[in-house]
């Protein structure tokens, strides 16, 4: 019988690779009897959906209020201007 | 035939902030994110004659930024090879499970409707929770879940020695994240 710690590991591993038949059966058996791990498994899937959705929509988790600092912007502008002169 | 591109000054104006957010979500450090943005725009300036217009300007620039970032991860993860070992080693001292391997923390029911999860407010909480992870762990998690990169490729880019270490790292990240979301969003 798996512990919750082992089950949580297999639940996560299943999202990034493949479980052996034995691992799969052990996980199903544990989850069938353990409310906490059943919830954990379901929430991992939801977490994945949320992350992928964010990845597709804006490719970031940050709000649009997160912006480049003025200082960095000036520095980059300068570097671009110098390079543009050079490429002319 | 040539395609009309905006000038590099306009790139910065139009896409600078979006590209910056892309970078900082993945590397976490503001100065580093700005450096990557600068490298990206300089590379774009050099390569602008090759731009064929198959993609939007922003997609093209994001593609260059992604390459710059992967290069950066490759280099930096090979410079400090010992950090991975540390993160896996302390897996035994786990605050989320007791010595018998049962959950030590309570897992609350996520009752808020999924619609609420699209709000920027929720994304901000998620971002804060990801930021609390150890740096390499958060980078690996973002590459895997936000970008959907394959496991083997992430191991290669981040110099993770085995798939098993990779699975252990991600499993830890998910337990921590789920708990952080419980505390800061679902169970306030």
UniProtKB/TrEMBL annotation, chain A:
Stretches assigned to the Putative zinc-finger domain: 4-38
One Pfam family recorded for the sequence: zf-HC2
Top-level taxon in the UniProt lineage: Bacteria
Entry protein name: Putative zinc-finger domain-containing protein
Species, as recorded: Methyloglobulus morosus KoM1
Lineage of producing organism: Bacteria, Pseudomonadati, Pseudomonadota, Gammaproteobacteria, Methylococcales
From TrEMBL, chain B:
RNA polymerase sigma-70 region domain mapped to chain residues: 13-78
Lineage: superkingdom: Bacteria
Gene Ontology process terms (BP): DNA-templated transcription initiation
Database matches in Pfam families: Sigma70_r2, Sigma70_r4_2
SUPFAM superfamilies membership: Sigma2 domain of RNA polymerase sigma factors, Sigma3 and sigma4 domains of RNA polymerase sigma factors
Residue ranges that the Swiss-Prot or TrEMBL entry lists as coiled coil: none
Domain RNA polymerase sigma factor 70 region 4 type: from-to ranges: 125-177
Name the record gives this protein: RNA polymerase, sigma-24 subunit, ECF subfamily
Organism from which the protein derives: Methyloglobulus morosus KoM1
